[in-house]
Amino acid sequence: MASPQIGRVESKEYYSWMRGHHAYKDIFKPVIGTTLTLQREPENAKDPHAVAIVEDTGRIVGHIPLALSRIVSSFLKRANHKATAEICGKRINRGSGLGLELPVIYKIYGERKYLNRLDELIHGSETAKRALREKDEGILIDGQKKRKSTKRDKDSLKKQKK
């Protein structure tokens, strides 16, 4: 009997946050550029769909946002599907009671048809879309937190050009 064909592995990137850093800050010192692994955590008492972010040693150092966990956890059930989180900024407390977070780039690996379905599920859910961030949101540039441009910023630029 022939073994099933596994399609070519591709990847997609999502800009989001690593949640729960406040709970792990004493055991994990984030370094920009560090790549960590995403791992399903079905035994998690708070969320059976939780996806932990782990170091190479297997130690948990954070979690993906709850709004993404059910979708990503389901995707990671397939043996050839993997995911990583690359730290791309300094920790931040954005308010709203979420504690310390780290801006990360989630890189999801799998077959194209499943990646496309993952993308549809994430972008088709208002809750999941809110867990994403703009590419530069939360990133520190020259010691300043970069933020989205406002209408006032754009008007100011127009005046400077005149």
TrEMBL record:
It comes from the Eukaryota. GO terms for molecular function: hydrolase activity, acting on acid anhydrides, in phosphorus-containing anhydrides; nucleic acid binding; zinc ion binding. Gene3D superfamilies: 3.30.70.2330. Residues 152-162 have a biased composition (Basic and acidic residues). Residues 19-112 form the HIRAN domain. The keyword Cell membrane does not apply. This is HIRAN domain-containing protein. It comes from Pocillopora meandrina. The lineage of its organism: Eukaryota, Metazoa, Cnidaria, Anthozoa, Hexacorallia.
